[in-house]
Amino acid sequence: MLTSQPVDDYPLQFPHAIQPHGVLLALAEADFSILQVSANTNLHLGVEPQQLLGQSLGTLLDPAPIRALLTQAPQLERVAALQLLVQTPQGEGCFHGFVHRTQTAVILEMEPADRAAPASFLSVHGWVQETLYRLQQAPNRTTLLNDLVRAVKHLTGYDRVHVYQFDPQGAGEVVAEAKQEELQSYLGLHFPAMDYPKWVRQSYAPGKLRAVGNLQAKAVPLVPALHPPTELPLDLTAAVLRSADPCCAEYYDNMGMAALLVVSLIKDQKLWGLLSCHHAAPRLLPYEVRAACELLTQMTASALTSTVKQEDLEAQAQRQALQSELIDAIAQADSLVEALIDSEARLLQLVNAAGAAICLGEDLTLVGTTPPVAAIRDLVAWADAHSQGDLFYTDCLSLQYPEAAAFKAEASGVLLLHISKARQYWIVWFRPEVLQTVNWGGPPDQGIPLDEQGQMQLGPRTSFALWQETVQGQSLPWRPFDIRGALDLRTAIVGIVLKQAAALAQVNRELQRSNRELASFAYAAAHDLKEPLRGIYNYANILQEDYGPTLDEEGMEYLGAIQGFSQRMETLINALLRIAQLRQRALHLEPFDFNDGLKTAAQVVRASWPEVDFELRVPQPLPQVQGDPALLNEVLRNLLNNAIKYNERPDKWVEVGYQAGRDDATGGQAVEGQAVFYVRDNGIGIRPEHALVVFQLFKRLHPQERYGGGAGVGLAIVNQVIERHNGRIWVESVLGGQYVLFHPTGRAGQRRF
Fold first, then answer.
1. Res 10 pLDDT > 60
2. Are strands 391-394 and 413-420 parallel, antiparallel or unpaired?
């Protein structure tokens, strides 16, 4: 049977007939008068259908048990079972009765029962108890489901019993199977969602058992065909005896099966899967056996819920331990990035990822296996524009972000955690592509014809042979506790960062106040010291000029020493004042041409060293930068001055240049948008152990009398200026060789030259 509607829009409707092994009566609840009956009452009750219509149910059996059942359960929509004794022309007959309500009637279904049923029930009950004990002891879901299918196969005698699990999209997989040896195995095969359309899954969702003893048996209609109160077909949705839909019968006939039993597996109040039993020949199961199968399935579903929860709890406990360690590391570390990098294994294990990217504004730090930096930046920008909330995750990124196909090997699955929108802080985890071979029970789109508009139509599957499909661009799925772990980490990070930010803000305020006070003190102290120092120098001059003839040679040497010390003290005080001024002075940023600045600095240095000839080399024009011209000119003057001062060669040269994007802090790798300026010479060089101390205030590496003296403040001033521009300065040198000096390494959000 085909329908012109799409499969998931196929209306929820069932045949308006029953299977021939029982009878059905539709009763008016007010007086239990018979409104409709199945056309086979003569076979089971010995009375023609027309003779029963309009009669009271009391003509057949005592209605008291049914009335009591309805009174106890006013909303009786699910089927309730009871044993009934029915008066027939042939005498009293024993039946299993099944009762439920619809909106317009009470439905009573009856199947002939064996009077020896109690003994049979006790036998089944004992076996079920023993089976339930085994199911409760199952250590994991695989064992549990395998125990269930083996037990049900033994109990029913059916040729094949399997558990069919639905995925979130409605497709299914056979995850457990017990069968006759000669039959084809369906274990591990997948079946598309259209094999169990949405309306079929909905019919099983309340938790139902469906049994058809003979799929090819002729269905028995109702008399009359329409329900008298409504003049519409009677609603047989919940009927135990409802006959098989022709499409369903053809589906199982194509499979080579003639009888079936299907029981819902309900987990967490949702349809998780089905216990599906098939038999090649007609096989009608007694009610006791069907009830036992339903009980075993319900208990298995309950145990399945507990088993899955236990597995999840164990995995969650491991993740929580990792998370606690990671949070402790973050709380104790000086920076978030350092804490996450130092805890690389924990960061990846937290969500079972192969790689991660820590994005703090423009700064990007990678751990593990990841896509290229540029691809990650584009991905984060896309996620920022398209994601809702603080979390985005998928196990098939290329479906939503086609550009991801280029790096699917490293990142078919991603989990993006937005830590701070204000600062664009992200943590992105990556899972690699997992090439999967999906085994389908026949081609997944087979048996689904299309109408003239190209819409799918419902039709039975004709092939169940193995059909393989390779799924690409997909990672392992993210599990619920992966998501919880990421969100919990975000909450912890935000809490820690806010707490640290408040503490840091307080420290910064105190530090700024201390710096202001220290700078003011240094400036005032240096300024006030100059007056008495000038007096000492002047009085030494007076003594030397007016009383020189009365002093011996040693006394004159002492006066000369006092004058020298006074001059050196004034030099140091002036240097201290200059440093204080640099710390207090606001930067005046504007475009600065290094070429013009270098010419000016070279003129000043040549005027300071008129007796020294040196060659100034500039291999290529220098770029323009954004900076304070006065301070950058001072940097160039100091560096050129040092290059000439510490050079004993007759042919002196100094080279000033730049290298685009080089940053020795990152191992010499290129840094986009940055440049390294260098000053290189053929002077005496610097020992490696002195590479840092040369930038300290008042630090000299040579005796005062060598290389023209000096206060040891030139490079300290240079360092101060570069730091004020958020740059970095360092030295590379060998004795008698060269040194490379300064470079604005800025971090994201800082000024760059």
1. no
2. antiparallel
φ, ψ (nearest 5 deg) of residue 472: -115, 165
Topology classification of domain 17-115: Beta-Lactamase (3.30.450)
pLDDT band at 688 (very low <50, low <70, confident <90, very high): low
> Distance between CA atoms of 544 and 542, rounded to whole angstroms?
5
Instruction: Write down the mean pLDDT value for the chain.
Output: 75
Would you state the pLDDT for residue 520?
A: 63
* Relative orientation angle of helices 629-645 and 594-608, to the nearest 10 degrees: 50
Using CA of residue 407, residue 412, residue 418, residue 422, what is the dihedral sign? Answer: positive
Pairing of strands 614-617, 652-663: parallel
CATH of domain 503-584: 1.10.287.130
Instruction: Please give the torsion angle defined by the CA atoms of residues 313, 315, 319 and 321, in that order, rounded to the nearest 10 degrees.
Output: 70
Burial letters 369-391, b for 16+ CB under 10 A, else e? bbbeeebbeebbebbeeeeeebe
Going by C-alpha positions, the residue among 102, 99, 107 that lies closest to residue 81 is: 99
Q: What local confidence, expressed as pLDDT, does residue 707 receive?
A: 47
What pTM did the predictor assign? 0.54
Structure tokens at 420: 């701070």
Chain segment 187-229, per-residue pLDDT in tens: 887 777 777 777 778 777 777 889 999 999 999 999 999 999 9
Nearest to 740 by CA among 668, 660, 673, 676: 676
If we measure between CA atoms, which residue out of 224, 251, 266, 193 comes closest to residue 8?
A: 193
Rg of the chain over all Cα atoms, to the nearest angstrom: 45
Domain parsing of the chain, residue ranges: 17-115, 503-584, 590-743
